[in-house]
Amino acid sequence: MQHHARRYLDPYLRAVRLVDLGAVVLGVGAAQLLRFGVEERMLHSMYGTVSYLTVTIVLVVAWMLSLQLHKAYDGRLAGHGVQEYRQVFSATTSLFAILAIVAFAFKLDFARGYVLVAFPLGAVLLLVGRYLARRWLVVQRRLGRLSDRVLLVGDRDHVASLVVALRRTPDAGYNVVGACVDNARGEVEGVPVLGPESDVLVRAMEHDVDVVAVSSSAGLGQVGLRRLGWALEGRDVDLVVAPGIMDVAGPRVLTRPVQGLPLIHVEAPDFSGPHLVLKNVCDRIAALFLLVLLAPLMLVVAVCVKLEDGGPVLFRQSRVGHEGRTFSMWKFRSMVVDAEDQLPRLIGLSDASGPLFKLRSDPRVTRTGSIIRKFSLDELPQLVNVLRGEMSLVGPRPPLPREVAAYETAARRRLLVKPGMTGLWQINGRSDLSWDEAVRLDLYYVENWTPLLDVMILWRTLQVVLRPGGNGAY
Q1: CA–CA gap between residue 352 and residue 345 (Å, rounded)
Q2: N or C: which terminus of the chain carries fewer CB neighbours within 10 A?
Q3: Contact 390, 320 (CB under 8 A)
Q4: DSSP code of 365?
């Protein structure tokens, strides 16, 4: 059941229900028309017969009920993360499994063509509908609308970290309006301090917040947190507890209650096993397919680079890969031939922080180079590196040896997996990111990798590449 604190989302969720209903009706209706046409057909069982039109109506109702039971309309999942899509997929597969069991138990002679069209088509339409609805919601949230008003509780450092994290992901719909921090005044990361932790309930009511987020550093204690939860009951305010573990994805977290104490189990990252083998195989197959598909485009780029100044088409550079092994990474040359020789005089002008060198208006970039960089076409030859097993389609940014030499201990964990042609750094600003932020994103990927995360990054990469100018590529 949807929490009342998000009543502002009710119109959106009603619209999502209508979109889902349309997708289900279209999927099941198309299955009936494609399999039977306009003729009335009957489903036979050991208990008699029933028309497929009745079956279609029952299936639509059951599908919508399954979506409701799987909490596919929980506003807390709307707009951010993969959980919303996972609920839709789980509802669909559960219904399909139940249908198979019922058909076997009651000896229902379902037309295979009907089932094989209805469920895949319905699932795809549901996911597409959710994606389009989410795009609209994300736009609204980035404009400051349809978001929870949040009050943070904790010490200054933890509150500051929470503010930065929530600002980084406006899609999640958390708009921080204030904080309750002991022994602090003024602001924390631009958020006004409204009072000490003991005033949290009063300040929550005064500022009409939807969520009170308590960090692990809060001095409320076990009893104080329980009393706060009791006090917020019936006031249309959610209580959220932010544990002191950062950058750990949901699949690695298991909450297990023991004697009323919620113990959080954090699984260790997995750097081997069947999933990794599958990733390597899929990488090489996809790289071979893309090399064949994009061969005409790569030929055009090569000709343009050659005609620019008559120099080499490809640029080879040593990069550090999996477990510190050095390999030659290939790119289309986007700079003048003697670019490496000019680097020492430009080092001091770098726009990047840390060991990374980036120059927004790099004088070494050619005219052709500036164009292919905007669309990331200069990176297409790296498909050869993927095919050879030196890189992956998705992974941390491939570092230079001089960058690795300046790595701190945490940053070296980026080398536990193969570097990628794209990654979280590419879809979150690329060269516009600070060094610390780039490292954080890479470490998050290394420790929380899943096949689904790879698919999401590849999809987002396509969107970023087709929207040049605002993707941090220079």
Answers
A1: 16
A2: N
A3: no
A4: B
**CATH architecture assigned to 148-244:** 3-Layer(aba) Sandwich (3.40)
In whole angstroms, what is the distance from residue 59 CA to residue 64 CA? 9
Residues 270 and 261: their CA atoms lie apart, in Å, by: 27
pLDDT digits (tens, 9 = 90+) for 125-152: 999 999 999 999 999 999 989 999 999 9
DSSP state of 243: -
The pLDDT value given to residue 244: 64
Q: Cα–Cα distance between 295 and 130 in angstroms, integer?
A: 35
Domains in the chain: boundaries: 4-142, 148-244, 274-465
Q: What is the pLDDT of residue 351?
A: 60
Question: Is residue 113 a contact partner of residue 34, using CB atoms and an 8 Å limit?
Answer: yes
Query: What are the residues whose beta carbons fall under 8 Å from the beta carbon of 325, sequence distance 6 or more?
Result: none
CA distance linking residue 411 with residue 433, whole number of Å: 15
pLDDT at residue 346, as a whole number: 77
Q: Distance (Å, rounded) from C-alpha 296 to C-alpha 360?
A: 30
pLDDT value, residue 249: 58
Q: Are 177 and 83 in contact (CB under 8 A)?
A: no
Query: pLDDT tens, 365-395?
Result: 899 999 998 888 999 999 999 999 999 999 9
Q: Using alpha carbons, select from 435, 92, 429, 424 the residue that is nearest to residue 249.
A: 424
Which pLDDT belongs to residue 1?
36
Distance CA 71, CA 65 (A): 10
Question: Is 193 exposed, middle or buried, given 0-12, 13-18 or 19+ CB atoms closer than 10 A?
Answer: buried
CA-nearest of 109, 140, 133 to 47 is 109
368 Cβ partners below 8 Å, 6+ apart?
304, 305, 307, 308, 334
Measured distance CA(216)–CA(205) in Å, rounded: 22
Cα 251 to Cα 266: distance, rounded to the nearest angstrom: 9
In angstroms, rounded to a whole number, what is the distance separating the alpha carbons of residues 152 and 181? 8
8 A C-beta contact, residue 242 and residue 216: yes
Give pLDDT, residue 2.
40
Stated as kind and residue range, the H or E segment containing 121 is helix 112-142
Q: Which residue is it, tokens 């502002």?
A: 8
Q: Which helix (H) or strand (E) element contains residue 212?
A: strand 211-215
Residues of the chain with pLDDT below 70 are 1-6, 38, 40, 43-48, 217, 244-252, 258-262, 268, 271, 348-358, 429-433, 468-474
Distance, CA of 441 to CA of 466 (rounded, Å) = 22
